[in-house]
């Protein structure tokens, strides 16, 4: 035996650790080999119908594919953003068809269900496959088996294959728009504030909204500011309005917003310097800087190596209003006028305010809603005197009297530009009535 003749406990312990390490290394090598792409067919043309839906169910309706992305930050892999049942899906395989040599490769996938599942049976998932070394596949199919007919499988385009130069500095990701969303005035105000602060693109994962809201979205799409990603998740799964599983038979929380956020990061990884993860009723307001670009330049200089910047959320109750900026022509537009809401709730003792983020998308591997789960580089909590999230919504602390709230008119610094820009949008979308 390897350890024969060793009498001391120390020597025996060292011996056991050595053998264990050797076995572990051998196991990891075998595991890696088992995930290596294998040629299963040759001389084939790449066939199969190309998937065009945002959410594509696989056979059995336990796995849903959103989109694959090329990721070479550690290995040359295809990372597929998807949704899977955390218990029922045990094995998946990537089928790569290489146009160059006509070979079809199959790779066993690593199925990585994100840790922030909050008890729901389905969760955001990375389906990660090693790519063939001698080709750069443009499409991939996902199957439960390494055997079958690739012609019968949907094919998905692998995005981010070619590096791009940044086309924008800031992209805002909003997920998801649902519940026949009709907060039109606040949405327009948020969009115009984003643009004032330096945003060039807003990506919205839209489940549904009102007819009036569709009109506004059409305007921003034609303007080039908004990209709408259809998000028909309730056609496939029973969705919950809550973020936590309540044993109510639902499948996934809050319209699958975590999956949408992860897809949005990868979708914009090669085209946007920063990605902002927040909701349509939230605005990151800088207190020391005029815009986000100036603010982020300063924060990056102060925090070298940081890739995630977290901003504290503060509630401005929509039930408490100021008479200032009561603009009569806006009164017929459904939604909240944020300029009239400048009283924020005080910080609660022993309650941590949630945060939203501005991230370097090339450094993020997985994200949740209020923090990243895995990333290269550190996360930084941005002090409240640098910036805060203006969040105008229903109050969280009951009906606090006005004297208990904190008057904060930071938003009014932008009032002139904001009013002009909102009026322009309202006139061009024919939502504004004559005084």
TrEMBL record:
One Pfam family matching this protein: Glyco_transf_92
Keywords: Glycosyltransferase, Membrane, Transferase, Transmembrane, Transmembrane helix
Coiled-coil regions listed in the entry: none
Sequence intervals crossing the membrane: 9-28
SUPFAM superfamilies associated with the record: Nucleotide-diphospho-sugar transferases (SSF53448)
Membrane topology designation: Single-pass membrane protein
EC number, as in UniProt: 2.4.1.-
EC supergroup of this enzyme: transferase
A single cellular component GO annotation: cytoplasm
An example molecular function term from Gene Ontology annotations: glycosyltransferase activity
Protein's cellular compartments: Membrane
InterPro entries: Glyco_transf_92, Nucleotide-diphossugar_trans
Family per similarity comment: Belongs to the glycosyltransferase 92 family.
Name this protein carries in UniProt: Glycosyltransferase family 92 protein
Protein species of origin: Calcarius ornatus
Species classification: Eukaryota, Metazoa, Chordata, Craniata, Vertebrata
């Amino acid at each position: 035996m390897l350890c024969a003749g060793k009498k001391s406990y120390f020597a025996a312990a060292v011996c056991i650790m050595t053998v264990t390490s050797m076995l572990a290394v051998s196991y990891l090598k075998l595991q890696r080999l088992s995930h290596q792409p294998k040629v299963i067919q040759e001389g084939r043309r790449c066939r199969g119908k190309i998937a065009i839906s945002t959410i594509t169910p696989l056979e059995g309706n336990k796995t849903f594919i959103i989109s694959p992305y090329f990721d070479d930050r550690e290995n040359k892999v295809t990372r597929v953003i998807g949704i899977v049942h955390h218990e029922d899906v045990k094995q998946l395989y990537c089928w790569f068809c290489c146009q160059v040599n006509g070979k079809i490769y199959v790779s066993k996938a690593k199925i990585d269900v994100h840790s922030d599942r909050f008890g729901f049976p389905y969760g955001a998932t990375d389906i990660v496959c090693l790519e063939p070394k001698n080709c750069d596949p443009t499409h991939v199919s996902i199957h439960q088996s390494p055997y079958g007919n690739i012609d019968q499988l949907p094919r998905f385009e692998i995005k981010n294959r070619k590096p791009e130069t940044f086309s924008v500095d800031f992209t805002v990701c909003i997920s998801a728009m649902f519940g026949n969303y009709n907060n039109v005035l606040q949405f327009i105000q948020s969009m115009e504030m984003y643009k004032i602060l330096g945003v060039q693109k807003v990506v919205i994962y839209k489940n549904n909204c009102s007819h009036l809201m569709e009109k506004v979205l059409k305007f921003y799409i034609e303007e080039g500011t908004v990209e709408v990603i259809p998000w028909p998740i309730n056609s496939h799964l029973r969705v919950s309005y809550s973020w936590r599983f309540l044993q109510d038979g639902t499948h996934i929380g809050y319209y699958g917003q975590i999956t949408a956020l992860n897809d949005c990061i990868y979708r914009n990884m090669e085209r946007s310097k920063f990605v902002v993860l927040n909701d349509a009723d939230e605005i990151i307001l800088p207190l020391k800087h005029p815009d986000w670009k100036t603010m982020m330049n300063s924060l990056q200089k102060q925090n070298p190596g940081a890739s995630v910047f977290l901003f504290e959320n503060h509630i401005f109750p929509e039930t408490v209003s100021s008479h200032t900026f009561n603009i009569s022509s806006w009164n017929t537009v459904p939604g909240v006028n944020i300029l009239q809401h400048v009283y924020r709730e005080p910080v609660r003792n022993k309650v941590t305010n949630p945060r939203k983020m501005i991230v370097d998308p090339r450094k993020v591997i997985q994200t949740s809603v209020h923090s990243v789960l895995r990333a290269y580089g550190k996360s930084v909590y941005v002090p409240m005197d640098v910036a805060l999230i203006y969040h105008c919504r229903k109050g969280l602390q009951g009906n606090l009297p006005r004297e208990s709230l904190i008057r904060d008119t930071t938003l009014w610094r932008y009032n002139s530009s904001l009013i002009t820009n909102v009026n322009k949008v309202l006139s061009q979308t024919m939502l504004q009535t004559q005084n």
